[in-house]
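Structure tokens please, single chain.
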Amino acid sequence: MTSIRFRLQVKACVAAGVLLAACAGEQPARPGRGMGSGAAGAPVAVVAVPVQARPYTDEFTALGTARANESVDITSRISSVVTRIHFEEGQEVEAGQLLIELDRRELEADVAMAEASLRKVASQFERRKALAKTRVISEAELDELEAEVMIAEAELRAARARLQDAYIRAPFAGTVGLRRVSVGDLVGPDTLITTLDDLRTLKLEFTVPEAFIGTLEEGMTIEAHSSVYPDRSFSGRVRTIDPRVDPDTRSVAVVAELPNPERLIRPGMFLTVDLQRRRDEVLLVPEQALVPRQGRQYVYVIEDGKAVEREVQLGIRAPGLAEVRQGLRSGELVITEGTQKVRSGSPVRIAATG
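Here you go.
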């Protein structure tokens, strides 16, 4: 009886095992997480756009400071008393125009003495020169007298130069500032008489981050705006780019020329600078096509019906777009939707194009 019960239990266990195996075999297979992204399997539906080179204008906004094209403090080279003033505050003057006269009586006397000294030594030289033909005096004595003549001529030129210092003139054309002296004042090299600024063209100084150095070039156009004139813009061109990058700020200094025929912009004013540079062959891709990983940027390019991962080097960023400087060619298809479902080598099906 016991052996019969044992055989029945063994048969029941075997039957249960067969039943479990059958159930396991009939259970439908669940799709794995990576089935859609594997190299094998059905193609993944994606949205792709062709990469095309198109014109693009680089823009950057900075805060600049206006400087006069030429600027100088007018002072005297000599110490003397002001006798006449020939300018008005804010007046436009030409290069060489007389601004200030100083007392020159002593200087004129120095010139007269130098002229008399020159006449004296020149007369002696001419008489001795005639005697030299008869060999009454030596060549050495004649050479000494000739040197004295040259010294007297130099002293006369120096005296006349000092006399000209009594006439203070504008070194260049510009606008005179406030007058700091009056007739009768004793002025010297340390005395500020007035200022002179060339405002017809201004220098606009600003800095640009080193990341934008590639978009700068001499001669490129800029647009500047001032809060003083909100409805006006001032056009200019980049004149100089500092060859060095500031190691502290990681920026480069730029100087632009800004025509100022109406004298609206004054030195020291702040202006907002808009840099523009047009480029004709720029590859732009939608930002959603980028796949960042470990500090690098990748895109998926469709080749022969498959997604191929490609590392790219980016340039400027625009709203919703990114410039690709290396890694892509014009005309290639990049995936913009579905990048999370594919991997390199996955078969894909283009459901739509942008």
